[in-house]
Amino acid sequence: MKHALHSVVFALFLASTAALADDMPTYKLTMKDGRFYPETLEVPALTRFRLEVKNEGPGATEFESLELKKELVLAPGVTRNLVFYPMKPGTYKFFDDFHPETGQGRIVAK
Length: 110
Prior knowledge:
By secondary structure, the chain is an alpha/beta fold. The protein has one helix spanning 2-23, and strands at 26-32, 35-37, 40-43, 49-55, 61-65, 70-74, 79-84, 90-95, 104-109.
């Protein structure tokens, strides 16, 4: 009985987490030929959001932000998500470690 109760509580937790994730605003970022599209993303400050990152280029790419402590390596044709916790207003740089000369971008939280 105790095991069944734990299973129900866990299932409710997963359902509520999925519902919260679906309510998050999602922003799309494309990586192609060593560049980010768009190079600047404007997001609401103090709001949790999801970033959908897609690699449309022929080689591997990397989304990395030292300030935000986020890193994501993508093989060609791969799309993945990152969740960002509420950010203070400001500008946060990100880059592609495989294309440091051209792969530069920023997130502006307003």
